[in-house]
Amino acid sequence: MKSEINEKNAALGSERSVIREIFEYGNMRAAKIGRENVFDFSLGNPAVPTPDCINESIARLCRENADVHGYTSAQGALSVREKIAETINARFSAGASADDIYMTCGAAASLTITLNALVCSPQDEVAAFAPYFPEYRVFAESAGAVFRAVDADKDSFQISFASLEKTLNENTKAVIINSPNNPTGAVLTEKTLVRLCALLKEKSTEYGHHIYIISDEPYRELVYDNTDVPYMPAMYDDCIVCYSFSKSLSLAGERIGYIFVNPKAEYAKRIYAAVCGAGRALGYVCAPSLMQYAVAENMGDFADIAAYKRRRDLLYNALCDYGYDCVFPDGAFYLFVRSPLDDAKEFCELAKKYELLLVPSDSFGCGGYVRISYCVPEETIKRSLPLFKKLIDSIKREQIL
Ligand code: PLP
Fold first, then answer.
1. pLDDT tens digit string along 363-394?
2. Taking the domain 7-51+303-400, which CATH number applies?
3. Which end of the chain is more exposed for a tag (fewer CB within 10 A), N or C?
């Protein structure tokens, strides 16, 4: 029978992500036993409030400027793009102008637009390093590319260069990096990135075409203890930054971010044109105007990073103390913990008995771990700690018996 709809998209829309599944389970349990008795660590929804300066800008812009509810240029208001260019030039000597910036509805839109701008043949491959944000596969495949996962470096959660070398081939169009990383919180060091850039440059020459780095940066500002997050366009010309204010300003629901096409890329102008074209084709034009103006007024401001650090320290120290094997997160708001049971899904099922909702790592392309999102109220973390202890103690008891 001839299909009346796009079956691929129907399948995508019908299946819930594992994370959403757990989130819905949490809502169901909360209705039964009370929200305060469920410890939902599934979603990456920022719990630290949006800074006052943003709320004040929004209120004032609404009061004083009727234009903020109208369309801007398709690629974003010129004044906003100028402000962003000025800021990244001051911070990173990016050499940006307003015409290298495209305003988007968050990192998800930044990524889909960028992939649609770059992918031009069904053979094109897009690689990402495990563990990776599961939507990368959806975004890359929907743009018409083949998605290739690079196996994880489970020792340091930097880059496994042996796996990367096996993955790269003449069809590799782009490599997505995400630092600080969801789900590990790891930050790629300068040493790792220098090696990555050298390898990609060598392979670009060997294959006779550019291999692009797509730097997915929703967590750039969420780093602790002065950890350095190197700026990719300064290290690699063929780089496109996919930025978002979702986490840095706790604006996840307002859908605002931008794409920065590095003007040093050989085909920068053509790439920017393709970004504008992909935005147009996908209907991602004129990102929310009010939010564009609000973020532009507050470019140096971020949500309270110290509040996330307190949560990180609380959770990491306690869990290590109880005997969990945790990856130390330098950034983002996730803790990646080795599953004490061989099967991480089984461990998450057991955790549910203690009302702890954790995400098994399988959908991140790296089995055997769980992700704990600690972007929840500090009180929730404090109250959950005895349950984490009981959980691992119960496993230790079983293992001894
Ligand atoms: N990339 C990563 C690594 C993420 O963790 C997320 C959201 O959690 C996104 C992209 C999408 O971000 P946004 O809400 O800005 O679209």
1. 999 999 999 999 999 999 999 999 999 999 99
2. 3.90.1150.10
3. N
